[in-house]
Amino acid sequence: MYRKGRPGNAGYFENMTRIIFQGGLNWRLIDKKWPNFIEAFNDFSIDSVANFKADRVEQLMNNKGIVRNRAKIAATISNAKQFQVIIQKYGSFQNYLDSLDKSNNYAFVIRELSKTFSRLGSSSARIFLYSVGESIKHEI
Question: In angstroms, rounded to a whole number, what is the distance separating the alpha carbons of residues 136 and 102?
């Protein structure tokens, strides 16, 4: 799910957003619309998205090129703000992940991500970690 050449904080943010929007939907639909998401969310610039206001939300709700789900759009803005806090405190999202206890197949990390980020439940947190290359084991 990582866009090639998109490492770092913006890559994590984009990947998390994609997983959130994909929840409950066909992955092909999201894949087809993803170039529109990139444009709509300013190439997933964390600082830019964190500053989206109500008028920008309304623009996004009228954008037929993306999934127009108000709760997921609001979550993306909220999550950008959380990324800002994490980057300020840890220097990078990777440093934040590295600071968390990854024993017991990332159980603590999954709980922390689910508490910290909007619309990122335990299943989507697990998918996110796997998709960004963390060595989480698939549970049957």
Answer: 9
Cα atoms found within 13 Å of the Cα of residue 52, Cβ hemisphere only = 23
Instruction: Compute the distance between CA of residue 11 and CA of residue 105 in angstroms, rounded to an integer.
Output: 23
> Using the 8-state DSSP alphabet, how is residue 139 labeled?
P
C-alpha 94: how far from its chain's center?
A: 14
8-131: CATH architecture? Orthogonal Bundle (1.10)
Amino acid identity of 136?
I
Distance CA 68, CA 36 (A): 12
Domain ranges of the chain: 8-131
pLDDT for 19-69, tens place per residue? 999 988 888 999 999 999 999 999 999 999 999 999 999 999 999 999 999
Instruction: In whole angstroms, give the CA distance from residue 17 to residue 52.
Output: 15
Q: Which two tokens stand for residue 51?
A: 């500053």
pLDDT at residue number 137: 77
